[in-house]
Design goal:
By secondary structure, the protein is an alpha/beta fold. Helix content is 43%, strand content 21%. A five-stranded mixed barrel has the order 1-2-3-5-4. The chain has a five-stranded parallel β-sheet with strand order 7-6-8-9-10, with helices on both faces.
Amino acid sequence: MDRQSLDRKLTVSELTSKIRQIIEGNFSSVVVEGELSNCRPSSTGHLYFTLKDAGASITAIMFRNRLFSLGFEPKDGMLLRVRGSLSVYAQRGTYSIVAEEMEQAGACEILAMLEERKKQLAKEGLFDDERKQRIPRFPRTVGIVSSPTGAAVRDILNILSRRSGGIRVIILPAPVQGNEAAELIALRIKQANAWNLAEVLIVGRGGGSLEDLLPFSEEVVVRSISASKIPVISAVGHEIDWALCDYAADLRAPTPSAAAELVSDDREKTYEKVRALMLNLQRTMESRTEKIRLSIKPFNPEDLEYRFRSILQPRLLRFDDAKEALLFNLSAKVEQIRRRLDLANMGLEAGSPKKILERGYSVVSLDRTGKLIRRSRDLKKGDRITIRPLEGLIRAEVEGIDE
């Protein structure tokens, strides 16, 4: 190397900046698949981990706000597919992946397959609510289709013995993962129905990866649960886990322990509750009976008539008074109307033409027109007139007019 080349030196920061521009500028979005290792959540909530394969490894970080969208718990040994960007950490001179999304490798294909299978089975009506059966509240026999050595069975047995020790439990052993699991699970469900082994079945297992839970989404298991005459509770994994048998079952429990609680209502508590209700009902009936007895105690055959009369007599007096007042008011009203009629009749008679004629007045009319004569100027000398006194008619001729 010549002297001129050495004069063109770079500081560490300048070199790192150039490397950073190249890496971050060309790898702003990458998808990397590898095995998860050295997974360690930090106290701030961020997740630091390493992705590796047979020939290399790369560090990565997923910030806390992105972790909320994960549908699983990352654990060492998982095969993951991570989408994010490359970032250079200048202080250490290292680069790493800043993860935006993370999923189990192969999970997308599995989820797509499960969704397609779910649509097909739903179209056949296997998930319809009309097919659901009621879960018995106090079953005498409970069947468990699961691995007899698994933690799920132990949890179920512990809860049943604590809450309802008299329940008879039949374990129908079946593997809960692997290629043969689905066929054996479906076979155990069919055997329980064929021999009527239980009043309710719990089908499930503890938590696991999406691949581990696949047997409970196989078509043969879903169809056997849907066809079961014995009510089935699906209890697969944890609360966030799901399988297609959840939709076909008569009831889904978030965990196997929850399934055990659903079929084992505490009999002692239920008995105490019924007993308390019975005592409360008895006290209420006794209290009301005593109130009725005290209410009817003053009433006996000897004074019932007196009490009845004491109630009725004032009302009869008020009725008589009201009747007398009504008759008096009606009589007064009739008398008042009668006087008004008499006065009206007198007025009519006073204005009657007949009465006027009786007092000596006559009606005069002009013969040629028939009109009544009210003034002397309405006549002229020589006019023929008719005079109508009270009785008869007088015919006359006008000889003179005096106005």
